[in-house]
Amino acid sequence: MSIIASNFKTNHTRKSTASFINEINSFLKSNEITSEVIVFPTATSLDSFSTLPNLTIGAQNAYPVEKGSFTGELGTVQLDEFSIKTILIGHSERRHVLGESQDEIAKKYDFYKSKGYKIVYCIGEPLEVKEAGLDKTLEYVYEQFDGIDVNYENLILAYEPVWAIGTGVTATNEDITSVHSAIKAKIPKPLLYGGSVKVGNVKEICALEGVDGALIGTASWDVEDFKQIIENTKDL
Ligand code: PEP
Asked: Considering its fold, how many domains does the chain have in total?
């Protein structure tokens, strides 16, 4: 059974998020789709949505505290208000655009693990590393597990090559299977692929050996496309 996750990044408003989530919930219900679906809205759009058990709302980011003086950040007190118990950690935009270090990511991971959150943990290499070959790619990706307890029961991994995120360039099936099989041999956890996944390629990618679903940005923001993505993968 596939896990299909949507990362809204900095898109949608409170109003459009609520309508998106309600529409996806009704779609899952009326089509009796049992895939696990996770939506990560913006922080301002989090709310107490009433959804089916297989539709989960998660936080794109939060600080490793319950509450305190951390201007611009969220803690668990704010997430608890909406019963949010799922978080995305290690996304490439937080690593490379917002400058989160592996050390900070590991602290965040440890904190949310201690609170029992479901963690979708992202790893992936930049283009120059990919161009240096598979061994270098795996070396780079394994370093992103420094300080991360990979035995955590509530862990979902997402392999997202940085060069494929938001670029329209999807990794080839061969790229995906070689990295996924290596990671899976080391860490037997659900492993999603992310990077320019869309309606037209999601089924083929999710059907690959070692791929347990997809984490999708751009192509998930349109509710009709996201429904089609769920439909295309519901039997995998
Ligand atoms: C992402 O941000 O996790 C992602 C995979 O983005 P996109 O689908 O736009 O490449």
From this structure: 1
Task: Determine if ligand 1 sits within 6 Å of the CB of residue 216.
Answer: yes
Tens of pLDDT, residue by residue over 12-56, are: 999 999 999 999 999 999 999 999 999 999 999 999 999 999 999
Q: Write the pLDDT tens digit of every residue in 80-107.
A: 999 999 999 999 999 999 999 999 999 9
- Which residues span the domain enclosing 206? 3-233
User: How far is residue 111's CA from residue 55's CA, in Å, rounded to a whole number?
Assistant: 24
Q: Is 160 a catalytic residue?
A: yes
Per-residue b or e along 42-77, where b marks 16 or more CB atoms closer than 10 Å to that residue's CB: beebbeebebeebbbbbbbbbbbeeeeeeeeebbbe
For residue 55 and ligand 1, the question of a CB distance below 6 A is answered with: no
pLDDT of residue 94: 97
- Using CA atoms, how far apart are residues 81 and 79, in angstroms rounded to an integer? 5
CATH of the domain at 120: 3.20.20.70
Ligand 1 centroid – CA 194 distance (Å): 6
CB-count burial class (<10 Å; 0-12, 13-18, 19+) for 146: exposed
Closest to 75 in 3D by CA, of 89, 59, 92: 59
Spatial distance between the Cα atoms of 28 and 21, rounded to a whole number of angstroms:
11
For residue 8, the CA-to-ligand 1 centroid distance in Å is 9
**Threshold 0.85, pTM exceeds:** yes
